[in-house]
Amino acid sequence: MRLFLRVAGTWLIALALILLVVDGTRSLAASGLVYTSLVALWTQVHAPSLGAVEAFFDSRFFAELLDTAFKALLESPAFAVLGIPGIVLALTGRRPRRERFLRQDRI
After folding, report:
1. pLDDT (tens digit, 9 = 90+) per residue, 43-87?
2. CA 41 to CA 54: how far, in whole Å?
3. Are 5 and 93 in contact (CB under 8 A)?
4. C-alpha dist (Å) from residue 14 to 2, 19, 24, 49, 106
5. Closest Cα to residue 9, out of 101, 102, 107, 82?
């Protein structure tokens, strides 16, 4: 399980870094802050699935609340949406840290 968490986290962090480099290059070219929103990235990758997810959220009990949260998530930068869960997954899958203490005479 830890291996899966670390691999998934590493992939998400790698995608976030790629998007950050692309956004950084666009920002330098535009001489201002430019970022790719998640909705723009999702539309470029697979637009029909975005419509399917929106239809799924519309059929739920808290549709208005889910729609508001989903729209806020879609408007945020794609590198942050992918990078933060990637960091959390990578840290969750890491090996537990063991503190090792040495005796005074072995230092």
Report:
1. 999 999 999 999 998 888 888 998 999 999 999 999 999 999 999
2. 16
3. yes
4. 18, 9, 15, 23, 42
5. 82
Q: Phi-psi region for residue 31, left (φ > 0), alpha (ψ -120 to 50) or beta? A: left
How confident is residue 98, by pLDDT bands cut at 50, 70 and 90? confident
Question: In whole angstroms, what is the distance from residue 25 CA to residue 35 CA?
Answer: 10
Query: What is the token pair recorded at 10?
Result: 């590493």
Q: Give me the pLDDT at residue 60, please.
A: 87
Distance CA 24, CA 84 (A): 18
Q: Which residues contact 56 (CB under 8 A, 6 or more apart)?
A: none
Average pLDDT, the chain: 91
Record the tokens describing residue 24, joined without a space: 């950084």
The residue with tokens 């998530």 is 73
